[in-house]
Amino acid sequence: MSVTGRMKAKVTRSRRELVARGPTAYFIRQCHRHDPEVNQCLKDAANHLAMNFRRGIPELGYPEVEPIVIDEISIALGSGPDGYRATFMDIEAYGVSNLTVVGVRSDLNSYQFQLSFYIPKISARAHYKSSGVLLVMQASGGGDYWGEYEGVKAKIYFRASPQMYKGRKYLVTEEIKMDFGVKDINMGIENLHNGNTVIRSNTLPTGLFPSAGGVLKLGNYKEMKPDIKKNIIRIMKRFLDNLFTKIPYDMWMLDS
Question: Where do the TM regions start and end (predicted)?
Fold first, then answer.
């Protein structure tokens, strides 16, 4: 099962206890709450989890983790019924699991955590379609989107609250925020269909410009970023909810 924007698997109480009742799982590295280097320990623990996550963790419901799937991302230019709209559907991203956690900040008293990530490269594929008006002309079409994102840096902040269940302390995710940046981007659209001269024009305000071989290049991603962030936050919340439901807080954070 891949990690998807839907993540349909439901976590039941019995499945929660699979991890809670046994010995410390192989993918968990324990930290001590009063360790002066607790943030370093949390960074090491997060990287240990990520290393195992790349291989798949069936105990958490992830026998395989890639591709990461997002149902849909949209961008809009202009307002009103004739505004230009572009939609990217059935997005599959590869390389996300190669992340490295480069920094952790925490406030254990208020259950707040901030993690900084680095991902060398993400490759994405999707179906693309557009509609609306650009440059006073109808601009509709579609094709196959591809994207190569290199040097991805991200920060994710989350706040949780404790909850007791059968004498064990679990965390419940209350809030998530994130931001990211990309050092270098190459992306475009192949196999254009139903396209017209506007779609193929090199004067589009989004920075689109055509290249040889029938490939439509996209010059930047800033119009896509808000929707990407929204989808990443949704996926991350479902992942954390799944993780925290199955692994007691007092299993990975020892009160000593």
Answer: none
Amino acid at 102: V
237: part of which helix (H) or strand (E)? helix 225-246
Q: What is the pLDDT of residues 146-194, one digit of tens each?
A: 889 999 999 999 999 999 999 999 999 999 999 999 999 888 878 877 6
Cα–Cα dist 59/171, whole Å:
18
What percent of the chain clears pLDDT 90, i.e. is strictly above it?
A: 52
Rounded (10°) CA dihedral 199, 204, 209, 214: 0
**Kind plus residue range of the DSSP H or E element containing 227:** helix 225-246
Q: To which H or E segment does residue 252 belong?
A: helix 249-252
Assigned token pair, 79: 């307002």
- The structural domains of the chain, ordered by start, are 13-254 (3.15.10.30)
**How do residues 68-94 score in pLDDT, each as one tens digit?**
998 988 877 766 767 778 888 999 999
CB 171 within 8 A of CB 163: yes
The closest alpha carbon to 159, from 171, 145, 147, 144, belongs to 171
